[in-house]
Predict the structure.
Amino acid sequence: MQSVSEAPVMAAPALPVRPKHKGSAQLFANPVLERLSHTHIAWPVSIFMATALASLYYGFMHDFLSGASAWALFWGGLLLFSFVEYAVHRYLYHLPATTARRARIQYTLHGVHHEFPKDKTRLAMPPIVTVFVASLLFFIFKLVFGSWAFGVLAGFTFGYATYLFVHYSIHAYAPPKHFLKVWWTHHSQHHYRQDEVAFGVSSTLWDNIFGTMPGKK
């Protein structure tokens, strides 16, 4: 019988990989772990959105937030999320695969998504991991921001939910014909042409600041 802590069963190809538009990778030999690595996008989006609403509600009901400060803290949390999204994608998800262990970690975290970008069940974390992350964010923000945490957490988790929805839409649907097409174009450059740039998904702000916008050509 396979152990629960068993490493991914398949070899971890280094980026860049040739995208496959059908199928799904098997990451774990253990069937329970393999099943838990898939999720419907509605679960994590709902969890993070509920966290944002609950944080605002609790903050207002217990006088930790007021109108003006709540608005400022919410937008501060949203801006913070956009930076974390960019940094995690650039420095963790695209961790240089200099060793076999790093290659396995990188592939499990993100490389599998580059190889199977149309796999709708692996576009977000499973619910059990999502709940853990949401809880961890609360304790970190409470430690760092004190009573401001409720406003910052609301903006951060709202940004997370928005990111998940945008990312899912980019991979699941055809690009729109209006101004929102910029998201589809930007992320497609990252997947199909230049995986060393275009790390922002829900925003191109930090790509513009740090010079990682894709070339126009």
User: Anything to note?
Assistant: Residues 163 and 202 are 5 Å apart (CA to CA).
